[in-house]
Structure formats: C-alpha cells, structure tokens
Amino acid sequence: MNSMTNNMPLSTPLDIRRGITSAADVAFPLRWGILGAGNISAQWVWALHACEGATVTAVAAREIDRAKAFARQYGVATAYGDYREMVAADDVDIVYIGTINPLHKEHTLLAIAAGKHVLCEKPLTETLSDAQEMYAAAEKKDVMMQDGMWTRFFPAVEHARAAIEAGTIGEVVLTQSDFFDPIYTVQAAPLAFGASAVPISVTVVVNNAGGAIVDYGEDKYAILTFPPRNSELPEVTELVGTEGRITLERPGHCPTRISIRIPPPNGVPSQYRTRNAPAPLHYFEYPLPGSVAMARSSPNQHGFLYQAEAVHRCLAAGLRQCPQYDKEESLHAMSVLTEINKAKQAAADR
User: Fold this and answer.
1) Contact 235, 254 (CB under 8 A)
2) Residue 225: partners with Cβ closer than 8 Å, 6 or more residues away
3) Cα dihedral across residues 253, 122, 32, 59: positive or negative
4) Which three-class secondary structure state does DSSP give residue 214?
C-alpha cells in the first residue's frame, strides 16, 4: 500500500500537506497566556516548552497564590489572580483556556474581546449555539479561535485522514468510536464523512453512560458509545469503507498506531466471501515526540505538541483556524454533542 501522497508521508500535518503553511514556522514566535492552573494546563505548558516558537509568559487562576505556585513550578514569568487582567496583558498573544468546561465560553469570549487568539480546551462549550457565538466573536475581532481537539493532530490521525481522502478504503459507510468522554467519539463522525455531511437523525441512549447512532442517510452511520469510565472499554475508532477498514488503535483518542486492512486486488471486502479470511493488514506506528518532558501525564499527553506546532504554523501563515479541525468540523461535532447533552439532561431530570 502506498504510504505517500504528493511525495509526502500520509502522516504529514494537513496544513503542510495542503501547502498552506511551512514546516519551519513552528518557530513563529507566540507568547502564551494560560487561563486556568489545573492539571490540563500544566500538561499544555510542558508541551509548549518543546515548541520552538512558544514562550509562556503568563498564567491566571482565581486565587493568586495558586497562580504563583503554578508559575514557579512550570517556569511561567507572571502570575495573575484576575483573568481579565491577564488577557489584557501586552506580552500575551494567545490564550489557552484550561478552565472547567462550563466556563469555556465565558473565558474564550473574554480573551477574544481583548483581541487575543484563543485555543480552547475541548469540549469547546456545551451547546451548538454557544459555539456559534464564540466563532462569530473571533471572526469579528479577526483572531484565531481554535477548538482544542488535539486528537486530530496526531500523525496516526493525519494518516487516516489522508488515506480516506485518497480513496484507500473506498467510500466510508460507517465509523465506530468509543470513549467515556463523548466529545472524543463525536469528532470521529466528521472525520469519516466530512464536515459538510448533514445528519438526518441523532438517536441517543444515555444515562451515566450510553451511546448514539448518527444517521447520515444513504446507509452511512456513526455509532458512538461512551461506556463507564471504570470499564474495560476498547477505546478504538474504526473507519469502515467499501474497500477497506482503518483502525485507530488504543488509545483511539490519542493514537500512536494505525491499522489499515485492504482486500487484495480484485478481492472483495466481505470476509464471508473469502472463507472468512481477513483482509491483509498494513500497520503503522508513530512514536510520541521525545522532546516533551512531562511528569505524571495522562496517556500520550506528549502529543499536545502536535497541536501546538500546528497553531504556530497556521498563525504564521495568517490563518485563523487549523485545517485539522476547523470551524466547520467543530460545529458539526458540536451539533451532535448538543443532542447527546440534551439526552443526558433529560435522563438526569427524570
């Protein structure tokens, strides 16, 4: 199987593969302000320390002592006990929103109002209408508002996307994805079918855990499951086509391995027509970047670096979003997540 496209490896970041950025622009200088002093912010800062153009100049928390402790531990120049003061600082170009999910919209709009670029940790917000408002505010100010779906920046996922675009597995007809946090499964739908695909229906079964079936018509479906966090979940994403299958291996939300199964020439995709013989397997592995020093990280959190470098390249090129997960795909995912959240709330109210 051909692992190159346009003389570039399939794992090449989409912005570079499309020729809209330069690989060297990871050195584009950006001064980051960190809004929120929790563990996710700490891991983002560790990744930024390995990003050539990044400088972390500020951190803000609700309590100044907490911000100061974070600044000392992670090498941040200035600590603030006031979010508004930090986003207004002259030495902050871009703000990372690492606060709790219900505050993402408020804090993103605060930074945008100050004229700063924003990378907001996923999930972007809780409803489609809120996400639309956030994007509209960023467009009015002509700043980046990037949805922090870091999954999309992993080389294994870049490879999967390039393979889909190249028709390697034919027409995608099904994606299956599981994870206890629904947003990670939801993003698999626009990856499989494209952001412009419009769901006919979203059927949700949910309590503390559950799933959703997204019907795109023409026998195309996304089957998304979010088992309990303490279960032995598979944690993979499968992209099933008429001529092959791609598996983003565990952990599917931050994969370093990809499997592609393609029938031989003149073969057929159904195992039951070939005496149940599986299609030949092509396997690719993409080790995590060794340049990120990170203690007590969540699985594969070193991969934050891929997303950070893409932000630097895209802003250097004057872009206001990264093509790996642009506004259209983000809003597509948010539309499905909104239905899931509605069902969760209805179950909680019963």
Assistant:
1) no
2) 176, 177, 178, 185, 210, 211
3) negative
4) strand
Amino acid at 149: M
DSSP one-letter code for 122: S
Q: How much is the mean pLDDT over the chain?
A: 94
Residue 138 CA to residue 146 CA, distance in Å, equals 10
Q: Is the peptide bond before 13 cis (omega within 30 degrees of 0)?
A: no
Write out pLDDT tens, residues 259-287: 999 987 766 666 666 677 778 899 999 99
DSSP string, 4-30: EETTEETTS-HHHHTTSS-GGGGGS-E
Hey, which bits of the chain come out as E strands? 4-5, 8-9, 30-35, 54-60, 78-80, 94-97, 117-121, 145-148, 172-178, 201-206, 210-215, 221-226, 237-241, 244-248, 257-261, 281-285
SS3 50: coil
Angle at 228 between CA 227 and CA 229, to 5 degrees: 115
The answer to whether the predicted template modeling score (pTM) of the entire model surpasses 0.70 is yes
Q: Which domains does the chain have, with CATH numbers?
A: 10-149 (3.40.50.720), 155-285 (3.30.360.10)
